[in-house]
Amino acid sequence: MTELLTAAQMQAIEQAAIASGEVTGLELMERAGQGVVEAIFEEWPELAQPVESGRGASPSRSPEYLGKDDAPRRAVVLCGPGNNGGDGFVVARLLKERGWAVEVFLYGEPEKLPPDAKVNYERWRESDAVRPLCEEVIDAGEDADLAVDAVFGTGLTRPFLDHGEVQSELNLWQAASRRGAAPRVVAVDMPSGACADSGLYLGYAGENPFDSAVMANFTVSFHRAKLGQFLSDGAVACGKVVVKDIGLVDRDSPAVPGEVVTLAAPSAGGKAFGHKYSHGHALLLSGGHGRTGAARLAARGALRIGAGLVTVGSPRSAMMENAYQLTAIMLRQIDGPNELDQLLEDRRINAVCLGPGLGLGAETQMLVMSVLKQERGTVLDADALTQFEQNPGVLFEALHGNCVITPHGGEFARLFPDLDEKLNAPATTGPAYSKVDATREAAKRAGCVVLFKGPDTVIAAPNGCCSVNSAHYQRSAPWLATAGSGDVLAGFIIGLMARGLSPMQAAETAAYLHVECALNFGPGLIAEDLPEQIPTVLRRLDIP
Ligand SMILES: NC(=O)C1=CN([C@@H]2O[C@H](COP(=O)(O)OP(=O)(O)OC[C@H]3O[C@@H](n4cnc5c(N)ncnc54)[C@H](OP(=O)(O)O)[C@@H]3O)[C@@H](O)[C@H]2O)[C@@H](O)CC1
Ligand SMILES: Nc1ncnc2c1ncn2[C@@H]1O[C@H](COP(=O)(O)OP(=O)(O)O)[C@@H](O)[C@H]1O
Ligand SMILES: [K+]
């Protein structure tokens, strides 16, 4: 797991280090600039070589040495009015020391720079010019190898929209540079304009935020990754995130309201001992005739992930349809809440999932209420959530600590319309309300674990524990957005809860493995393929 920080958390860590006398702000800025330069050459080692006449790197030359026919590498550095800009001046100086030709542009007034950034501005000005940020950047960048975006980092408080043409040019460069046709774009801490807490571009309403926003080929962050690099548009805009150590240490701070982590591979959850009943018995309720696939997908997920026994409970109308297609999974006829209550007298059925394909109507509501009063491990998804659109309070009252609800964006909006409105209102001030904030509030209100789906799946418990399961960067798996994949996820969660994992552990482990299954299969995936990847994924992760 990797801890993700908000801007306030990062500032608290920095302030505590400076206050303790261990380090000065200026030293931290120097290390940050060094970290960026180091990361650039690690990412693109060819940039460490000078350009021979006619351009094109010469692989065997010392980077410090320029022959008479060599042209220097070129960079444009865009600095902003805060310490992010200060980092930019350090980067400009360090590149110049390596023989680069560097042009620096400043957004803001030099007299207003904060003290450490001012020192680095003055150092640069001793020998070189700083031009105000303007469209000249576009000409200057035409011939450059690198563009450094150091306009705003964690301190963005307002929209940054008044240089749309420059921003969209950087965006075009990052796309074209993948074909070697333009300067590569590296962002310092955050692509400018995107909020470091929420990943939202401030001030963009309803349009594509990337039309005129800075997008980077990669982003260099300091000490720890920031939440906004893994949420919403930020996770797309960063390109890739490299975290550089600048000698800070974590410390508890009253300003830090509970950590958020990105999920890593689970290390536990093995099925080492016991007979099938010691691995639990999961029950999944099927919809009626013609609506049974979703429950079977979930059931297959539950069985593959290791529940000892899995039963599909089906209404009479769908018994034949289910019976034709189930083998290792058992089938029981359940018509209505009374029969469900009777079946649940078997205490060995320790986990129940309902919602996928269940349909909407009074009976769904009664089934949900019937299961919830049993206080057994419960996963509610899809129709079991939508059913409560008109009266979410009734659901929240019945939910208990042994439940997980798994809304996608639409279902989240139905249950938590006010939180959805806050999340989707155009963000105009930073730090903006984030998917982490919304999911945490939702979990508190619902009184159970909420798994809010998406490429940035956020999982929160009522006590504030929170994690992000990111399907971005090296875990990007857009083909997971396929019909029925959410049903399989619900099945993974209920299977793990049947095996005794806590709701939070089950939701986190299932979400992680779900993306691993998609990565293992690759493009062309359909939901049926997901449970079949579990054996390979578990073997690879060394989970028995
Ligand atoms: N923390 C650490 O440990 C370390 C941090 N480091 C670096 O510092 C960065 C954070 O620096 P920072 O706090 O100065 O914030 P930054 O992003 O430069 O901007 C703030 C300034 O911009 C202004 N402003 C905001 N929005 C605006 C807008 N739209 N248009 C115009 N102005 C706007 C805002 O004005 P205000 O809101 O106060 O009026 C303020 O003046 C961080 O990302 C990292 O790169 C490293 O050096 C090493 C260790
Ligand atoms: N772009 C994406 N990259 C990775 N995973 C995604 C992406 N979009 C959606 N997902 C995941 O796909 C699943 C879709 O679930 P859901 O919306 O409930 O679909 P369905 O109802 O068809 O099963 C969720 O687990 C979600 O996190
Ligand atoms: K930046």
Automatic annotation (TrEMBL):
Q: Which UniProt keywords apply?
A: ATP-binding, Isomerase, Kinase, Lyase, Metal-binding, Multifunctional enzyme, NAD, NADP, Nucleotide-binding, Potassium, Transferase
Give the residues the record marks as binding (6S)-NADPHX: 83-87, 153-159, 189, 294, 357, 408, 487
Which amino acid positions bind K(+), per UniProt? N84, D149, S192
Fetch the SUPFAM superfamilies from UniProt.
Ribokinase-like, YjeF N-terminal domain-like
Top-level division of the source organism's lineage: Bacteria
Query: So what EC number does this one have?
Result: 4.2.1.136, 5.1.99.6
Q: Which PROSITE patterns match?
A: YJEF_C_2, YJEF_C_3, YJEF_N
What is catalyzed by this enzyme? (6S)-NADHX + ADP = AMP + phosphate + NADH + H(+); (6S)-NADPHX + ADP = AMP + phosphate + NADPH + H(+); (6R)-NADPHX = (6S)-NADPHX; (6R)-NADHX = (6S)-NADHX
Q: Name one GO molecular function term.
A: kinase activity
Which annotated residues bind AMP? Answer: K453, G454, P455, D456, T457, G486
Write down a Pfam family by its short name: Carb_kinase
* Cofactor-binding details, from the entry: Binds 1 potassium ion per subunit.
Task: Keyword check for NADP, yes or no.
Answer: yes
**Cofactors:** K(+); Mg(2+)
Q: Which residues form the YjeF C-terminal domain?
A: 259-541
Q: Does the keyword Flavoprotein apply?
A: no
**Domain YjeF N-terminal: residue ranges:** 10-254
Family designation: In the C-terminal section; belongs to the NnrD/CARKD family.
Q: What does this protein do?
A: Catalyzes the dehydration of the S-form of NAD(P)HX at the expense of ADP, which is converted to AMP. Together with NAD(P)HX epimerase, which catalyzes the epimerization of the S- and R-forms, the enzyme allows the repair of both epimers of NAD(P)HX, a damaged form of NAD(P)H that is a result of enzymatic or heat-dependent hydration.
Q: How does it assemble?
A: Homotetramer.
What is the protein's name according to its record? Answer: Bifunctional NAD(P)H-hydrate repair enzyme
The source organism is: Phaeobacter inhibens
